[in-house]
Predict the 3D structure of the following.
Amino acid sequence: MTVQLKDRAEAITIQWIPKYTALERLGHWLHTATFVPLAVTGMILYFPFLQPLAQGEAGLFIRLIHRVAAVLFGLLPIIYYAFQPRRLLLHIREFLPRKEDIGWLKGAPAYYLLGKHEAMPPQGRFNAGEKLNGLVMIIAWAVFGITGVPMWFGKGIIPPELFRWLVIVHDLMMIVSVCMFLVHLYLAVAHPLMWAGLVSMRFGVVSAEYAAEHHARWFYGPKRAMEIYEAKKRAAAEGKH
Amino acid sequence: MKRNNPSPNGQATPTMSRREFLGLSVLGLGIPLAEGLTSPSAPRAASPEELAILYDPVKCVGCRACQMACKRWNNLPAESTDALGIYESPTDLSAITWTIIKLKQTDTGWHFFCYQCMHCTDAACVAVCPTGALFHDERGFVALDREKCNGCGYCTQFCPFGVPHLQTANIWTGAAKSAKCTFCQDRVWNGLGGPSCAEVCPVGALQWGKRAELLEVARARVAELQARGMNARIYGETELGGLHRLSILLDEPAQYGLPAAPGSPALARFWQKVIQPLGNALFGVALAGILGVFLFVRRKIRMEEVR
């Protein structure tokens, strides 16, 4: 398929609409700036082939970085929502699972691999995949805190049996969240259909066309979005006959 | 999903169904999992050069010369203790006390027990140490390279005998060094003899030497004590793959504050044998999957067609 252009102006006119507030973007990037050093310094203790970096003075230093980053990582969401409690309510509403999410997840492989988006039910400002990523990160935040604080201060206070389990859970959470992060990173920087994601997280805006396509419930509102979706499905069904 | 997807050049390329792929993935993850739970941890071949300390509580008079010799050779400062009205002083091992005599009053009298690192063959501390600071000397004992230690303290939490302790410089930064009995590694490595505790013991309650020979000594001694009507046994011959601190006990291990069946490295092994392979497998699957999707999507979805 070749792209037909009526004139040059049509090709370059993009209508931008705001998607993320400045604080939302700042929060996202500070979360990144603390998560990445935590993952990297944590893995130095985890992977045997990185052992030279874990030894002696270098090891003391990476453990110190891990702790500084951990404090910021832990405090960040608390400070963020303390200053704007209404954002917390909005985000909870936006991140709660909905029944369309199942349909979206079912359609996701065909969409992300082949670019087929006919079957995707309308999504809010965050789609089901973003919600899944967010859910893992919220759980990770809590689990890293619950297991990490006793690992820092609890030696000699908590029973060793408990400490051993904390190490295991901390590591399992790391494995899950790093895998999620890798997928998130790929979609953000390298997937052609997701080009607008990184733009909106950097500049706060998204093209209206992209929003209508990917976040219809947010763009049109729930009722209109469903109507458009049903109409699309009908058209596709008639097209088949 | 179709079994055969025609590729752009018209050839049919065999593809894996989703079910097959998931099945293989589960199998791939399941193998290290099953292996970790069933296989015994790395068996160390017993070498005739292996050294050990043998402790005989019947000969022990509780003089604590071992405790003092340990402090002097390893240059460890004295500990300030509280007057608790008991004979143990201090009451437990610490970062600056690597050998103590534990005392316990029973119906039949006093039990002495010289408590120090047991130098396990299947050592949990060595398994969990992320820096290699704790390692097995070729003569079997668990040596410690303090230069390599980064103070993570996993050894202190995984040891079934509660032996390693952290010398904590700063609780906030985590600056610390692990400390424990090293079998007087510097004496052994420099040919100065054996562990100072055993060298100094005035009654021969602590002896050091080749582990195989000390086991013979221990067996003969147990037979002799049993003939005298004592309930004697050896502790450390098979526990945790064999300890390099052998003990003769006159009672249940619990009476000496020892675990009867020290099976502790279960979680240490779990970490090494399950968590790490599982993590590697999942990171591998994630990276390979992303790379595969990246290459596939690059061909299937053209940026020019994306709005």
Summary: The beta strands of chain A are 16-18, 205-207. The domain at 14-96+128-214 of chain A is CATH 1.20.950.20 (Fumarate Reductase Cytochrome B subunit). Chain A touches chain B through 48 residues (CB under 8 Å). The radius of gyration of chain A is 22 Å.
